[in-house]
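Researcher: Please predict.
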Amino acid sequence: MTDEQSRDARAFETLAIHAGNTPDPLTGAVVPPIYQVSTYKQDGVGGLRGGYEYSRSANPTRTALEENLAALEGGRRGLAFASGLAAEDCLLRTLLSPGDHVVIPNDAYGGTFRLFAKVVSRWGVEWSVADTSDPAAVRAALTPRTKVVWVETPSNPLLGITDIAAVAEIARSAGARLVVDNTFASPYLQQPIALGADVVVHSTTKYMGGHSDVVGGALVTNDAGIAEELAFHQNAMGAVAGPFDAWLVLRGVKTLAVRMDRHSENATRIADMLTAHPKVSQVLYPGLPEHAGHEVAAKQMKAFGGMVSFRVKGGEEAAVEVCNRTRLFTLGESLGGVESLVEHPGRMTHASVAGSALEVPADLVRLSVGIESGDDLLADLKQALG
């Protein structure tokens, strides 16, 4: 992506529809074609037409998505992967070497924790846990070997909020890179690069795709050096987004702004209802004034997103029963689709952190609030709670 593109002053809603979406020069098609192709005819030995030689290295449909992602996050370059964890793996192999140290959140996605605890640690990278909502705790967790500070905000599943600008300054002063998983917020609600992050991570499976029909991941950075290294490792390791998957995410992104507005509106109504419900002991939603991270979230987010977690009086079995009784909220993992989902993190998405410092409360229920009628969603949760 060019410097001019990275400084594109057009509104987010306009970029979401137009960035990377150049009409096809041959037919005028307004939607980028799906280049379902593995290799390309060369104009003489080493003469690459448009820079394409093999679709692991580059594919025009993937290029369109990557340009779009970079524009939305305000970065110089975006890279699209086969999954969010594939993106994370590429990033860690790029930024880290044996003997390095990483600070990770005490409330991280279970798959991210598994990647650090069961995979990355096997090749000599050490990690420690910190409450990233407390900048002082992040500073205390740093060592002379810390190369990466990893943040999720809002976090999964406890909806913790980290002050990105404050932690960016702490990481920078220690010579470490700040990585922000922006999956829960999406670039419509929050842009970590503008707040000092070095790299932004996405599971594009979630809000970016938005329709529960694709698995993908992305990295975006404003650092040209990191971008080149990431591109080298992406090509060398090969976990790239396929053209059809890239096309699905590119299609989904076009409605990201309007979807996030509705997700946030519905989630706010649900959080308010749950706060007053006699069978709920705690509601975790950064839009609530009593949330510990509310002021920071209000400062760095446009709205508070579509994820709500809550704890049920009666313990684990009562929480499981709530999950089993919903009718509109589908019991399932993942999040960010137009349809509402409910899950029990302790037994589902976060089972891998059981017994660790990241273990989640057994009475916790996580909601991915969709864009259905808010009235219908409220009625469903009320009947599920009984």
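Model: The two ends are 53 Å apart (CA to CA).
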